[in-house]
């Protein structure tokens, strides 16, 4: 749940202010996942070894493979864009969509639908491109919306630093605790940075893409909106549970 520093609530994005772009991105990612082989729900991809081969081909076709991206193939420049709508498994999808659901609504409301859509796609594209540039020799496919969602988190930190976020921490027995958004997001960035330093070339979470996306989102909000757009008092809150993060390489 997110609330503003003033503590005042109203029905989430009631009326014409509903975050339709955020909803559309969530629905698109979920639909693409369900129809693809990673969900295991489409019988057309078969099962067992046949399904695993289909998943591998699917991720290579629609995800970012750094070695292929820099190969000069004219189709490859679109890969960082299509990869934003592909997810490796159910946990990857649900974690990303919950993050987008929580932080995307207020960010979209402040930016406007069209600007938010361009911001989301551009930040996600550049985050995946940055990861591919840093791992140019990698043949692992990279998929997921985490780079774009990290950009949303960066923008949210600048625009709503005093909003309060209800978070669940496993090491505190999942007790719901409320913290300022700036504290939660800076803690999240620190975890991504530490994990990125320990990451290797094996399949896993692309923490570097998270850091690139977050930095770009924060800088964009800072340059585009300045101090006048920051919320310190009353604002329009949104409610949801705290999500997870991840940019997976299947």
Model description:
- By secondary structure, this protein is mainly alpha-helical.
- Helix content is 54%, strand content 6%.
- The chain has a three-stranded antiparallel β-sheet.
- The chain starts with a strand and ends in a 25-residue tail after the last helix.
Write the layout of secondary structure elements.
Elements: E1 2-3, H1 20-35, H2 48-62, H3 66-69, H4 79-82, H5 90-111, H6 113-134, H7 146-159, E2 164-169, E3 175-180, H8 181-198, H9 207-225
Antiparallel strand pairs: 1-2, 2-3
Helix pairs in contact: 1-5, 5-6, 5-7, 6-7, 6-9, 7-9, 8-9
Estimate percent helicity.
Answer: 40-55%
Intertermini distance = 30 Å
Total count of strands: 3
Largest sheet: spatial strand order: 1-2-3
Q: Count the DSSP helices.
A: 9
Major β-sheet profile: 3 strands, antiparallel
Structural class: mainly alpha
Radius of gyration: 18 Å
Strand content: 5-15%
Query: In one word, what is the shape?
Result: globular
Pfam family, one: Rhomboid
Enzyme class: hydrolase
Keywords: Cell inner membrane, Cell membrane, Hydrolase, Membrane, Protease, Transmembrane, Transmembrane helix
GO molecular function: peptidase activity
Task: Give short descriptive properties of this protein.
250 residues; mainly alpha; three-stranded antiparallel β-sheet; 54% helix; globular; disordered C terminus; Rhomboid-like_sf; transmembrane helix; Rhomboid family intramembrane serine protease
